Amino acid sequence: MNRIILLPLLLLLTTGFGFKEPVFQVSKTTSDKQIERLEHRIFKRYGLKVDVNVISRNEKNEITNLEFIRYQKNGKRGGGCSSDKFGVLIITQHGCRITDLGYEANVAPAGN
Could you report the per-residue pLDDT of 39-60, keeping only the tens digit for each? Predict the structure, then answer.
């Protein structure tokens, strides 16, 4: 009986107090080679294929337009996010979000 109570309590404590899932991040200065390595790390970590497509860069070689695609285990497209005012892309096991240009300071540093 005690084990039945302790398991949900343990799950609550580990998810709510500092045991966060890994976060991967792409900033406007991330190179194409770094993006390629990141895609491999995400596949290795989660077993999920992802594509980070840089659509455009400015004259400083900064990413200005980006698309992130996540695929399901069966290979079908499973969702993603995109931005034409790109600032920072945050990727977790369960989703993604993009902070627009000018709001990058609102993003906590990635723990990858």
Answer: 999 999 988 899 999 999 999 9
| Total count of domains within the chain | 1
Stated pTM of the model: 0.71
d(CA 91, CA 78): 14
In a domain, 102, yes or no: yes
In a domain, 13, yes or no: no
Residue with tokens 């309590």: 9
Chain-centre distance for alpha carbon 60? 24
What number of other Cβ atoms are within 10 A of residue 79's Cβ? 11
Tokens of 81: 């996010």
Q: Tokens for 75, please give them.
A: 């290979």
CA–CA dist 6, 75 (Å, integer): 37
